Amino acid sequence: MIVTIKDVAKKANVAPSTVSRVIANSPRISEKTKKKVREVMEELGYHPNFQARSLAAKSTQAIGVIMPNSAYYAFQNPFFPEVLRGISTSAHDNKYGIYLSTGSTEDEIYNEVTSMVLGRRVDGVILLYSRINDKTMNFLQSSNFPFVVVGRPDEHDERISYVDNDNIFITKQVTNYLIDLGHQNIAFVGGSTDFVVTVDRLNGYKLALKDAGISFKKEYMVFEDFIKENGRKAIESLMNLNDPPTALVTQDDLIAYEMISHLEDMGIRVPQDISIVSFNNLMLSEHSKPPLTSIDICIYQLGFEATKCLLEKISIPDTLPKRITIPTKFIERKSCEQKK
Amino acid sequence: MIVTIKDVAKKANVAPSTVSRVIANSPRISEKTKKKVREVMEELGYHPNFQARSLAAKSTQAIGVIMPNSAYYAFQNPFFPEVLRGISTSAHDNKYGIYLSTGSTEDEIYNEVTSMVLGRRVDGVILLYSRINDKTMNFLQSSNFPFVVVGRPDEHDERISYVDNDNIFITKQVTNYLIDLGHQNIAFVGGSTDFVVTVDRLNGYKLALKDAGISFKKEYMVFEDFIKENGRKAIESLMNLNDPPTALVTQDDLIAYEMISHLEDMGIRVPQDISIVSFNNLMLSEHSKPPLTSIDICIYQLGFEATKCLLEKISIPDTLPKRITIPTKFIERKSCEQKK
């Protein structure tokens, strides 16, 4: 059964026009009434069709950009300014402004996105992450509000448009590269398993090991936040194993720098004693000691294409959902060596 | 004579309520009427008092953040993500979102800001730059819309709130540091003289030279955009002088890195042949070769304090304007040496 505005109005004991105004977040409706109507909307499972609304309403000429955590942490990682550079360039080409989230927890982010959508602050949203079972993504999807994800959505839902790298494939490739150099003890030092990107890369790593007949060791997985502050803990636990790794697949250049620095403190040399490959190919990677072998995931392009895709969805609401895979580049430098 | 809504209405041949709706950018008014009324507003010099309006109107819970040029260029410079980190943290603490400009020219930025203000998209604006005779700043000032500048405004106007470093003082200090190391031929490699920060630093540099009895040489000034692509041109023109400099004061670590790299190509060693001091103390500066002596201008703090100041202005409109000076730190590393 499709729930309509009339059903909500009847149950909430208000006029249908009041429900419409609550959806539009009109200042003419009291907060008390808004609360009541929204509760009924939730209870009945009513979701306004924002895409249809957006056609009728005046465009806001703005898109929302949602980061996985607060800017305090996010902007310590050069990924976010770089993806924002791609987003802003495409937004600007189309005379769109950018509304940036500042939430620091999942709940805060959810509240910000619902308020962007219900308050008609933006015409569409870009999620800069894909989390397992993310309620913000679920809200956007069930509201039929235009959005695009940077990253592969957790659940296989063909209606969701996203832009991503082929993380399984490339992680399999870099793991193979280390195996070809003679390494068998290869550790996986990743981000949080809340994020699909970590899960995908872990699967690529496991596939490479399996194909090479190397058994997968649980103790070779170290999950830490992307933030480099946690690097020391990660590397110490690994190097203190009875059978320590001779190669690392790290998920982020920032973590890699930190590890190289801690390894140096421990008297372990990169690449002579341990090889490291990483992801993101940050500007620093060329200048670090040793220069870092890294996967360039084309961050700017991820942001640019996600925005292009979103703006297409906004202007032509019946555009089919798209999955865009951005190719990566393997940048071989000096952080890996043949196993002795 | 104070121009009122009634004057505008009479001249435009519409009702005063129509003028109010145009100011609020109501969708109920046709674009044609809006255009006509806005032309009359401009002609008569009418500026709605947005500060008073904001008290009456519902808060947007958003602030506008305006960059000096497109994100395409701005986000190549770590200054912007870092200042945005400070802004977002303070905005988030106060449950505010951020509306980011994407304009790439002065005119585009002006249009974005007027549309943010007239369209009531934001409660206040942070300008991330201070340009000489900037029409965007003039618009904000004459509209009496809450705004704060990161950087010292060009004209001495006590009503403008801003957050800045004491650029004259610190540049005098670093120039003195080079003079104390025995350098007399000191070049100034700065950003665009469109920006007040460049002018202030140039003045600090000149003051130090004057106090030391060193005559100022025009050919020792190289003005280039902050973007590092222009570094080669800057350094070549300097080093080809008959009396080339033995020390450089550069305005930005990114320019400094680039120069060090070009100097290396030219067979000139830092610090043995030429000393370099710079500004911003980017994360890379510790790890560059040689580690860079740089002024930490506390970018995060500049953004954080500007936002705090703006939110105070928004919530208490009759707050007195403030000038906040953020202290800097001189980080001495290995890019300067005693002149031989």
UniProtKB/TrEMBL annotation, chains A, B:
It holds the Pfam family Peripla_BP_3. It comes from Bacillus weihaiensis. InterPro entries: HTH_LacI, LacI/GalR-like_sensor, Lambda_DNA-bd_dom_sf, Peripla_BP_I. The lineage of its organism: Bacteria, Bacillati, Bacillota, Bacilli, Bacillales. Residues 3-57 form the HTH lacI-type domain. GO terms for molecular function: DNA-binding transcription factor activity; transcription cis-regulatory region binding. The keyword DNA-binding applies. PANTHER family: HTH-TYPE TRANSCRIPTIONAL REGULATOR GALS, LACI-RELATED TRANSCRIPTIONAL REPRESSOR. The keyword Transcription applies. Keywords: DNA-binding, Transcription, Transcription regulation. This is LacI family transcriptional regulator. Transmembrane segments: none annotated. It comes from the Bacteria.
